[in-house]
Design brief:
The complex is a heterodimer.
Chain A (H helix, E strand, L loop, with lengths): L10
Chain B lengths: L2 H23 L8 H14 L10 H23 L17 H13 L6 H15 L2 H9 L5 H27 L6 H13 L1 H12 L9
Helix pairs in contact in B: 1-3, 1-7, 2-3, 2-5, 4-5, 5-8, 7-8
Classes of the chains: A little secondary structure, B mainly alpha.
Chain lengths: 10, 215
């Protein structure tokens, strides 16, 4: 899937 | 955002503030490993490369700036502040932390979620953070008396990632497709490295005696 890896944690 | 993650971030923030408080008010970094602080500055520098490209939330950006700013200023204090640097024990803080960076970088080049510069650097920061406390733990074992602030700093720093583990469990059961093996394994390894420190920390707290790690 083309979703860019978004790191939403610190 | 769940309560475990918020508690984890606040614990992490508290650890940084405790250390800054110690260094800034009593102008001393006795018992603090510069090596660990340098590793943490590198961890944040490589983990928050997306601070300008991916906006998650105001909270996320503010916290990233706080961690970046505090970790680099702590390194500056210990290395360059004319009073603080005199209390730095460079003869005891001898862990060769470069030997930690190289295997973490190699591992990140082979084991990652996606082979892009940002993703490999992010993965590198995870592996590096897992072992970043080692110079500090070695220093604590060498310096006989561990002052309260340094002990509290290490305790809070270890506890934050432990809280993150509960956050990952919570998210795994509440969000579909939330699977990040690399983050989870690195986080568990990191927390386990504190296990013996936690044991002696609680023992000293329970018996109300000074924290001392066995040599």
């Amino acid at each position: 899937e083309g979703t860019t890896l978004k790191h939403d944690e610190l | 955002m769940n309560i475990f993650r918020l508690a984890g971030d606040m614990t992490h923030l508290a650890s940084v503030l405790v250390l800054l408080l110690k260094i800034h008010t009593i102008k001393s970094c006795a018992g603090v490993s510069l090596k660990t602080q340098e590793l943490y500055a590198l961890v944040f520098a490589t983990r928050y490369l997306d601070i300008v490209t991916d906006f998650i939330s105001v909270y996320n950006t503010v916290m990233k700036l706080i961690f970046l700013g505090s970790s680099f200023s702590i390194v500056w204090y210990i290395r360059h502040h004319r009073v603080v640097r005199r209390s730095y024990d460079k003869d005891q803080d001898t862990f060769r932390h470069y030997l930690l960076m190289i295997p973490c970088m190699l591992l990140a080049l082979f084991v990652h979620e996606k082979f892009t510069f940002k993703e490999v650097m992010w993965t590198f920061s995870l592996y590096l953070e897992a072992v970043a406390i080692l110079p500090q733990l070695v220093l604590l074992q060498r310096t006989r008396n561990i002052d309260n602030l340094t002990g509290q700093y290490v305790f809070l720093l270890g506890a934050y990632r432990g809280l993150y583990i509960f956050n990952w469990i919570y998210r795994y059961f509440t969000e579909p497709h939330f699977v990040h093996w690399i983050t989870w394994i690195a986080g568990v390894v990191q927390t386990l490295l504190y296990a013996d420190f936690f044991y002696y920390y609680f023992e000293s707290w329970k018996n109300n005696v000074r924290l001392q790690l066995p040599a």
